[in-house]
Amino acid sequence: MSAYNAPSADTLSALETAPSMFLVLSPDLYILTASDLYLQATRNRRELIVGKHIFEAFPDNPDLPDADGVKNINASLQEVLRTRKAHVMRFQRYDVPDINAPGKFITRYWDPSHTPVLDKDGNISYIVQLATDVTDQVILRRQLTESVDAQAASVVKFDALNSKLDLAEQELLSMNFNLEKEVDQRTAELRESEENLQAAFDAGDLGSCSLDLKTGRAEMSPRYRSLYGLPLVGEITWEMVTAAVEPEFLDEVNLAMFNAMHSGLPVNSTYAIRHLQTGERRWMRVIGKVRKDEEGVFSNIYAVVMDVTVWKEEELRKNDFIAMVSHELKTPLTSIAGYA
After folding, report:
1. If you count DSSP H runs as helices and E runs as strands, how many of each does the chain have, helices first?
2. CA 172 to each of CA 157, 160, 162, 225: distance values in angstroms, whole numbers, following the listed order
3. Does residue 23 come out as left (phi exceeding 0), alpha (psi in the -120 to 50 range) or beta?
């Protein structure tokens, strides 16, 4: 490593206990230390990585031909070294070595950023790599997308069955026996598909909803109703749903509904609500697709909802920590130790 104004041992010790996941790197990209939470997330030990180059300690997973973690992380770090300014990345898959199984890697997705800390002469003393582990979030989002696609496939299958029934009515006298047999079979298949889909929703703690765009009436699963604090039985209208939405997000939610109703755009919104029964503030993620009626008019939205409060609060906490680091690193070491 080349000469640079390295952080003191006290500074590194204070950073190790801060309540976030990060590495501390020298300007030559050698690991100076890591926070306790980062070591937990990567299932590693500090003495095994300190002193190593970051890409020696954390190489790409050789079992992934298209792995781009090293390339993208390095590009971000080089941007920081060039500009001496913080750089925020997109979600990045970057598997970590499994120290308990040499040659094997643990799947990890991260929300990384790099922040330089400058010495009194304006030179980089060290770089803080803040890396929030979003593996569970990415995997669950993928499962959510698959669930929405499965629901859409069920709707298409149901439409196809209705078309067959219309045709069968015209030929009822000649093929009544065969038709009844086919209807029974298809009904059983549809019931099984719906049961499988509901099981997937239950496993992912998801609620489901079908909204009639013409009447504003909604058919909701019990989980959807409970997330908003809506009555568990009885008719639900769009106005009852929006009554739970926090005022600052109401225009965004109504715009998403307007675009779906008039343009058929898919719904993909994250917003805060106040539970109608408890008053608790929660964050909801709603994803839905629009269906046309037989006249080609957008008539229904089929959607799923999930409670993303934990993820959203982690994101807000991360942003607060980045802001804190940017401010605190310009103040005496006691400020950092006090935060830890």
Report:
1. 12, 14
2. 22, 18, 15, 42
3. beta
Residues near 182 by beta carbon (within 8 Å), at least 6 away in sequence: 164
Q: Which of 117-126, 152-161, 165-174, 321-330 has the highest mean pLDDT?
A: 117-126
Can you tell me the distance from the alpha carbon of 271 to that of 282, in angstroms, rounded to the nearest whole number? 9
What are φ and ψ of residue 205, in 5° steps?
Answer: 55, 45
pTM: 0.46
> Mind listing the pLDDT tens digit for each residue in 98-108?
989 999 999 99
The dotted CATH code for 205-307 is 3.30.450.20
- Which helix (DSSP H) or strand (DSSP E) does residue 12 occupy? helix 9-16
9-133+316-339 CATH choice from 3.30.2000.30, 3.90.330.10, 3.30.450.20, 3.40.190.120 = 3.30.450.20
CB 12 within 8 A of CB 32: yes
Tokens, residue 14: 């204070």
* Cα gap 265→257, rounded to integer Å: 9
Question: Could you give the CA distance from residue 46 to residue 48 in angstroms, rounded to a whole number?
Answer: 5
